[in-house]
Structure prediction request, 574 residues.
Amino acid sequence: MFCFQCEETLDSTSCIKSGVCGKTSEVSDLQDLLIYNLKGIAFWMSKTKTAGENIDNEDYLFLLQGLFTTVTNVNFDTEKMVLLMNKSLDIRNKYKNKYKHSNNLEHKNAEKNNVQNNNINNSNTDNGLSINENSTLADFIPDNAIWEPSARNLDVYYKKATSVGIKNPSDDLVSLSELLIYGLKGMAAYAYHAYVLNYTDSSMNDFIVKALSYLANQEELNADVLLGLVFECGEKGVKVMELLDKANTTHYGEPVPTKVLNGTKKGKSILISGHDLFELEELLKQTQGKDVNVYTHGEMLPAHSYPYFKQFKNFIGNYGGAWWEQQREFENFSGPIVMTTNCIQKPTEKYKNRIFTTDMVAMPGVKHIDNHDFSEVIKKALESEDTPEDIKGEISTGFARNTLVNSADTIINLVQAGKIKNFVVMAGCDSSDKERSYYTDLAKSLPDDSVILTAGCAKYRYNRLGLGDIEGLPRVIDAGQCNDSYSLVVAALKLKEALNLNDINDLPIFYEIAWYEQKAVLVLLALLYLGVKNIRLGYKLPAFLSPNVVNILIEKFNIMGVSSVEESLLYINK
Prediction:
């Protein structure tokens, strides 16, 4: 295996035997092969669409699911990967044949040209050029668009998978390609959350197909084209966060500032973690009248701020912190746990028999919930010991786009009165890396006239520090999940307008973006698209950025790494 897509990658270079996340080399390689197949699907989808044929919506959805399942800490199950691989080949061949028939090409053409390479005798196309009957298909069709397994099983897939991974990680084209892929993975995760609430955007589907199709032929990649696609991914990143914001607020109402119980009350209980609000909705509906309390964990905390969820009296509070603390926290929680979307870790024996997965999440030996049927989870909760009362106070959330915009006058007045000197955007993902204490130490060290704007699970580094408020405005303003970083951007643009500034970078806002996985990569690209400069990205710079790509980001946007709290304070307070 070769994997360097997350911040915890071994020695800040790559995982080559097993993932620090717990991913086996087999799963890692199979995920590489799935991405390889998605490129082949996109290749034929692109050509089919150019030929005037339609793409089925459920096949666009599969691209989202395929990308999403390879995000860090989502799918650890080889059996699930085989099923996805089978489906990817079916969809790829569907569009290969659709394009062939749309161009009135016959099987005999392939036979006539004696095309035998990689079992591609059922293909004949010209990649947009005129058909040359003397040509060999392998000359201009990428292997990911045409390879066929001798059998559809794990052994065959694994053998193929070992040949399609990253071979030259220091190459600039590889670096740009992976940066684009990781942005697409983040986009797919957010688009999937919007999709389950019946919100889609055809322009994002088209971009995913365009980007994957371009990446399909590694031999023809161009650095300038890749860089353009990377920045276009940032543009689409803003759109997908807008889309998910619209889906969530239309379905659940505009978030409002909410103080959430931090801890547990005595009684039967269920803990739900991850990001998927729709799964939470279904769980709450099914627990009505069951005398079972429901608690959030990790990125589910912001759900408490949506008006829709306030109707459920058994929706009690939040237990625990960021995803990386789950093994210890889940061991100490008495009831069953539901894991939605990414962020799962390998369960310990103490709770392996009471954790359940949904959505794209899969873990060997863990029960998966299909069709939002939580009856088994509820049964497990009723059979479990009561969760003891353990209340640790309250934490605040819900300062999303609408609240921030409505509070603009108050914020501007505090800025103009000199009571707020600056804002520090401390958003993104967290991890167990000990060096991440930098964010906690920085939050503690900021002067009392600094306000922290946050979104994502990085919030747990400072949302329970008791940093107080400035004339009623909390010094830690939590906009919500990582995708709600969009709310922080909206607030920044509103503040720029109100202060009559020409450039968003003239605002007294400093960016301390904690990245961990691919959704945070998309947030970064979205900020770059909006022209935000001087971002301090950490705690470590991504291993997939080659020195030349890092230099491009420095020259264009003055991207900075993290060195010390003292240096950051000098920069913020200058």
Summary: Residues 402-573 form a domain with the Rossmann fold fold (CATH 3.40.50.2030).
